[in-house]
Amino acid sequence: MARRNNRRQFLVNTGVLGLGSIGSGSLMTAFSQQVNVPNVVPELQEKPALLGGKPVLSRSWPSWPMVHKSDEDAIMEVLRAGRWYRNRSVEEFEERYAELNSARFCIATSSGTTALFTSLGALGIGPGDEVIVPPFTFMATVTVVLLHYALPVFVDSDLETFLMDPKKLEAAITPRTKAIIPVHIGGNVANLDEILAVAERHKIPVVGDACQAHLAEWRGKSAGSWGTTGCYSFQLSKNLCSGEGGAILTNDEAIADACFAFHNCYRKRPKAAPTADFSFGRNGNFRMTEFQGALLLSQMEGIRERADLRSDNAAYLTKLLSEIPGISPARQYPQCTRNAYHLFMFRYDPAEFSDLPRNRFVNALRAEGVPCSPGYSPLNKEKFLLDALRSEPYLRVYGREVIDAWLQKNECPENDKLCEHSVWFYQNVLLTDHQTMDKIALAINKIKKHAGDLRKG
Ligand SMILES: *Cc1c(COP(=O)(O)O)cnc(C)c1O
């Protein structure tokens, strides 16, 4: 709104408005003046904040987590009742979360990592198996594969969407492939149509990593409700949080029973089918506590409204940033009917910013008052992963030849490019208003205008 008002004000000041009948030549002039408006915005003339100028934005950002009296009451109720161990708060949360996502079953876990770990455990995945993962994700997507001594196989990213390139999936499948983990990174939904079609052809289970995708939808259905399981995280930074916590969604009763047994000392789910029986044997304690359950129930208040606000601001910001040459917001598939916008991700092209390096751009934008991050580094090349694969237990299971061959073909060139160019804003930046989105665009335009000085300075 502010931007439109400024523009209108400008047009009034220059006498473009209210002239009544003007010839088409004047209209052209009016139009080009309108396009050039950013150049007369005084803030654009200012010195960049990184070089000592005044920042474009001075506002404080919505704090995260959001804490209300109801959260306090929920925690105190559990505390005083001495009901600290898996009980009715966790069970009610499971029911409500399944309902929210139109999934048949929900199993709450201690974290997103243990939700993924449990899904793979319940599927009986172990040493010698391969699990397909994308490289543009948080390390936990791969950590859980390593915890089962399985081999992660990377499918390169698609630059436009930041997601696993579905066209490259089938070529990565071997007779040893036992699961595919598509990640809905930033809340943008991976191409489930194509991934599930390939998975079905090869009879491979799909464990969705929806840890950043609360309320995200594919074809109007919750992203985590597709595939064999969908896994969520309630870690502090996530769009729904309880410090730590996780959940598995599934529509398959046998999988729900198996996940429950794996996460809870081989016990039967209270409502398990009489036929429930497992053969994987391995299990553990990956339970959610009552404190987390109660806190999540109260934190769910307003979750849809917050999601709507993020979507509205993200759509507006996408439009603004798409007009800036060198800034390319992550594209979403048309079947992604709701993006969770845990992250607002875009690619930054230094060539359009006088070769100002990406990290310098990020620092300049932070200095203008916009919190942002350069995003992930290539996961397939991380030290922890290479260390694990070269560790004694891995060499014992796979042999040096298999591990060396893996290291040889471990290339994701598109993802390398993506990691060099990505920038993102966190979800709380989107819990604001259009005026703030205008200012973010203005801050980027300001950096662009002074990019040469910033590069030198
Ligand atoms: C947060 C996250 C996880 C792990 O969740 P935790 O609750 O932190 O264990 C896994 N995958 C992705 C993509 C995440 O963002």
From TrEMBL:
<dbReference type="GO" id="GO:0030170">
    <property type="term" value="F:pyridoxal phosphate binding"/>
</dbReference>
<protein>
    <submittedName>
        <fullName>Lipopolysaccharide biosynthesis protein RffA</fullName>
    </submittedName>
</protein>
<dbReference type="InterPro" id="IPR006311">
    <property type="entry name" value="TAT_signal"/>
</dbReference>
<dbReference type="InterPro" id="IPR000653">
    <property type="entry name" value="DegT/StrS_aminotransferase"/>
</dbReference>
<dbReference type="GO" id="GO:0008483">
    <property type="term" value="F:transaminase activity"/>
</dbReference>
<dbReference type="InterPro" id="IPR015421">
    <property type="entry name" value="PyrdxlP-dep_Trfase_major"/>
</dbReference>
<dbReference type="InterPro" id="IPR015422">
    <property type="entry name" value="PyrdxlP-dep_Trfase_small"/>
</dbReference>
<comment type="similarity">
    <text>Belongs to the DegT/DnrJ/EryC1 family.</text>
</comment>
<dbReference type="GO" id="GO:0000271">
    <property type="term" value="P:polysaccharide biosynthetic process"/>
</dbReference>
<dbReference type="InterPro" id="IPR015424">
    <property type="entry name" value="PyrdxlP-dep_Trfase"/>
</dbReference>
<keyword id="KW-0663">Pyridoxal phosphate</keyword>
<dbReference type="Pfam" id="PF01041">
    <property type="entry name" value="DegT_DnrJ_EryC1"/>
</dbReference>
